[in-house]
């Protein structure tokens, strides 16, 4: 028998106080200062951090390593951190509109009481978009990230000519790559603004037509994202290791983005409830979101293991090199992050979220969210760092500072969006279903 819930007030406003704004800005500045400090320490042969790279950084002064004649440098490590964190936080942001879209299309009601949270996430897309475009447009940083952009690599007769990479020139070329990047960021962001706009108008007018307009834009997003979630994975991550390929990589990349986004949503909801907000969000809705976290943690592991097993079993040199680099390459500095990635993204979430009651326990849920968010940061670290930073990779002040800056800015953008609308979409057609959702 369903339980009767007392309906709380649906008028809630998030107070993004000047004090919180100030703290987040200071936190971002501290992150930038940490990157500068880490670079200074490494350049002077001091190393503070776990698996940190303190050797070889003296070459950073010789040039930025943009050309094919330079090895990895300290600058390469900073560029790698900027690119990796951009891709990671871009994924968490775009998953907000992805989550809204598949729930709109399914005519779901269970999530309506907390839909303002995922609705706020895509506002941050613009930050990683600008960082990634800047890194790609600047030749020195572009050449550090992508081997296929090096001069002469696709030109027959050049000393840098690579036949395998040249065979991919129809897809991996500067103009087409740039067009794809702009299309990803522009269309994702635009479709979110339309869904958001009509969601707010629905709140103001109680006109059902605005719900259907949001739903139509959600359909467009899903159609576009069905293709671009994979092509973005190939572009932003797989093309770093240009010789290597995996037909499962698009699913793997999306699974990592998706479960990290779900964990970020859950953690935001729980922290808001801790502060007295989102009283209308029931533990049944939280339970369902917890089930999605649990399910997609297992799905990510399934895709991870399937990709690894097929490559390991086939033992093809052009494919196994990807895992050899992470197991024993570059002095073995990427092996520990590779293992930590698997433990944090599967073992901990599986054990924590398997029981029904744990998905209704705020402490367990926060532990699971922390494990997933940190774990998938490690996932993108081991995907991208070996190909960009190479033997300069490490985990130290530079990594902590870069991540702190991105996280602070992400929280700032999300909090700013949350403060611009009623926290509960009180005129959503399925709000009553969400308020009385019971499992």
Task: Describe the overall structure.
With 439 residues, the protein is mainly α. It has one domain. The chain contains 15 helices and two strands. Strands 1-2 form a two-stranded antiparallel ribbon. Helix 2 packs across helix 9 and helix 12 packs antiparallel against helix 13. About 4% of the residues have low confidence.
In short:
Helix content is 66%, strand content 1%. The chain is built from 15 helices and two strands. The longest helix is centred in the first third of the chain and has 32 residues.
Question: Which helices and strands appear, and what pairs or packs with what?
Answer:
Layout: H1 18-43, E1 49-50, H2 74-105, H3 116-120, H4 126-137, H5 139-145, H6 163-166, H7 174-205, H8 208-236, H9 249-274, H10 283-314, H11 317-327, H12 335-353, H13 362-388, E2 395-396, H14 397-418, H15 431-435
Antiparallel strand pairs: 1-2
């Amino acid at each position: 028998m369903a339980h009767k819930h007392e309906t709380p007030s649906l008028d809630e406003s998030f107070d993004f106080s000047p004090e919180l704004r100030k703290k987040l800005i200071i936190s971002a500045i501290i992150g930038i200062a940490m990157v500068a400090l880490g670079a200074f320490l490494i350049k002077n042969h001091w190393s503070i951090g776990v698996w940190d790279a303190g050797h070889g950084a003296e070459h950073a002064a010789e040039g930025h390593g943009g050309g094919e004649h330079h090895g990895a440098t300290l600058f390469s490590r900073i560029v790698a951190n900027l690119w990796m964190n951009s891709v990671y936080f871009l994924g968490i942001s775009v998953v907000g509109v992805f989550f809204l879209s598949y729930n709109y299309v399914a005519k779901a009601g269970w999530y309506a009481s907390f839909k303002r949270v995922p609705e706020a996430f895509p506002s941050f897309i613009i930050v990683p978009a600008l960082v990634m475009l800047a890194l790609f447009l600047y030749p020195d940083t572009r050449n550090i990230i992508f081997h296929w952009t090096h001069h002469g690599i696709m030109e027959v007769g050049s000393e840098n000519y690579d036949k395998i990479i040249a065979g991919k020139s129809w897809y991996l070329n500067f103009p087409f790559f740039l067009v794809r990047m702009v299309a990803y960021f522009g269309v994702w962001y635009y479709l979110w603004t339309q869904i958001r706009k009509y969601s707010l108008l629905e709140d103001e007018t109680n006109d059902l037509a605005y719900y259907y307009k949001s739903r139509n834009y959600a359909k467009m997003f899903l159609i576009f994202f069905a293709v671009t979630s994979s092509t973005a994975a190939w572009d932003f991550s797989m093309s770093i290791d240009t010789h290597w390929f995996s037909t499962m990589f698009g699913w793997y990349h999306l699974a990592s983005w998706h479960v990290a986004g779900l964990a970020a949503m859950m953690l935001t909801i729980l922290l808001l409830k801790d502060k007295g907000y989102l009283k209308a969000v029931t533990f049944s809705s939280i339970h369902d979101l917890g089930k999605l976290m649990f399910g997609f943690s297992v799905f990510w592991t399934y895709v991870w293991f399937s990709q690894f097993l097929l490559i390991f079993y086939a033992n093809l040199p052009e494919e196994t090199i990807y895992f050899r680099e992470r197991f024993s390459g570059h002095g073995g500095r990427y092996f520990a992050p590779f293992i930590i990635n698997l433990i944090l993204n599967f073992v901990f979430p599986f054990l924590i979220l398997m029981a029904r009651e744990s998905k209704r326990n705020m402490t367990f849920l926060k532990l699971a969210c922390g494990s997933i968010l940190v774990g998938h940061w490690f996932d993108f670290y081991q995907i991208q760092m070996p190909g960009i930073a190479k033997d300069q990779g490490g985990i130290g002040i530079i990594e902590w500072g870069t991540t702190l800056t991105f996280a602070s800015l992400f929280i700032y953008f999300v909090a700013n969006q949350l403060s611009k609308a009623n926290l509960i979409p009180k005129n959503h057609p399925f709000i009553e279903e969400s308020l009385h959702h019971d499992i």
